[in-house]
């Protein structure tokens, strides 16, 4: 087995860390440390066994970003690296990659129904030809959303619209939740408080809050709405 080929795999696995981080905003530092400590080939063979929770986090970030080609399994399946792995290991990688592509496609289909300010946290989405926008939406977390709405209700805190009152049954439970503290201003370990950090707003008001950078405050936009209605 060629030492040069093993080194190429090692280097490619480290390069994969950089590319995946740039694509998703999720940096798998434990993965990088393990590759450097054990060497790429040994770590690769370990990763073809069932994933741990931390490994799954990095995978989920890649699938949500629509980048299954940046998964470790896709790297293993490159033709040049085939001699380093057994038939069973390659079969496992191929099976996983097939599942990953399907899951990523399903996530993409679901995302097309979302508003731009409701996209998953930490990801980068292309807009136009050269510009990229990173939009954080911790408010998409189901538990945080539920707690927010339990505390604040489902009426927009800016314009006071209730979708149930306006649209009837089809409007039941439809409302956005807005993050009051820009995520760029808090530390990486910050945990959202649904009662103090999230508030219910309608899609129109949500978009208007984000018309400026940093976002307008709810009270400021409420004043603007009141003035416009006079």
Describe the 3D structure.
With 230 residues, the chain is mainly α. It folds into 2 domains: 3-111; 132-229. Helices cover 51% and strands 8% of the residues. It has 10 helices and 4 strands. The chain has helices spanning 3-24, 29-38, 40-47, 53-64, 72-76, 87-111, 142-152, 163-167, 203-209, 218-229; strands at residues 123-127, 131-135, 176-179, 198-201. The strands form 2 sheets. Strands 1-2 form a two-stranded antiparallel ribbon. α1 packs antiparallel against α2 and α2 (29-38) packs across α3. The longest helix is centred in the middle third of the chain and has 25 residues, at 87-111. The termini are far apart.
């Amino acid at each position: 087995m060629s030492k040069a080929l093993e080194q190429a795999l090692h280097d490619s696995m480290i390069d994969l860390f950089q590319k995946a981080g740039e694509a998703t905003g999720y940096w798998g530092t434990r993965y990088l440390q393990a590759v450097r400590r054990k060497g790429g080939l040994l770590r690769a063979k370990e990763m073809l066994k069932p994933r741990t929770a931390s490994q799954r986090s990095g995978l989920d970030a890649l699938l949500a970003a629509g980048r299954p080609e940046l998964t470790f399994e896709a790297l293993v399946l490159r033709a040049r690296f085939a001699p380093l792995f057994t038939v069973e290991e390659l079969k496992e990688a191929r099976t996983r990659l097939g599942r990953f592509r399907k899951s990523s496609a399903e996530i993409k289909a679901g995302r097309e129904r979302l508003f731009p300010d409701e996209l998953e946290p930490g990801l980068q989405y292309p807009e136009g030809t050269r510009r990229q926008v990173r939009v954080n939406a911790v408010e998409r977390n189901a538990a945080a959303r539920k707690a927010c709405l339990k505390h604040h209700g489902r009426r927009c805190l800016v314009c006071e619209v209730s979708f149930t009152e306006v649209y009837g049954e089809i409007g039941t439970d439809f409302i956005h939740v807005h993050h009051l503290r820009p995520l760029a201003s808090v530390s990486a370990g910050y945990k959202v408080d649904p009662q103090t950090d999230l508030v219910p707003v309608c899609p129109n008001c949500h978009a208007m809050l984000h018309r400026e950078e940093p976002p307008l405050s709810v009270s400021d936009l409420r004043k603007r709405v009141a003035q416009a209605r006079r």
